[in-house]
Write a structure and sequence with these properties.
Layout (H helix, E strand, L loop, with lengths): L23 H29 L7 H10 L1 H21 L3 H23 L1
Helix pairs in contact: 1-3, 1-4, 2-3
């Protein structure tokens, strides 16, 4: 006979927080922001590359891909890859990392492209 019993799933109090103590809403907002920033980066990079030429791209891997397969396919592939990795991080419930990556993209890509283009 046991003195303490573990609660069954029906007896546990429902919680709306994930394994990291963050609400699902926080994670959903963060991943949507990440997608928006990725899309903006792709659009601004496309405008920059078509305006100033492929040599304006600072990422050497992306610059190589632009030369190899063209600007639109390279940028679409890069942004889809970034989005896929963002989804993996979202599913792993590491939303603070996704938020940090979003902030890094804003500071390292969106702001510089915006200043250069506008």
């Amino acid at each position: 006979m046991y003195l303490v019993s573990w609660p069954t799933s029906d007896e546990r109090e429902p919680t709306d927080h994930g394994p990291r103590g963050l609400s699902p809403r926080f994670g959903n907002v963060v991943i949507v922001l990440f997608f928006i920033v990725q899309a903006l980066d792709g659009i601004l990079t496309y405008i920059g590359v078509t305006t100033f030429g492929p040599s304006i791209e600072g990422n050497p891997i992306l610059a190589f891909l632009i030369h190899a397969i063209g600007d639109a396919p390279a940028l679409a592939g890069a942004k889809m890859t970034a989005a896929a990795f963002g989804i993996v991080l979202h599913l792993a419930s590491v939303h603070r990392i996704v938020l940090a990556l979003t902030a890094i993209y804003v500071g390292a890509a969106i702001i510089p492209w915006t200043q250069l283009l506008f």
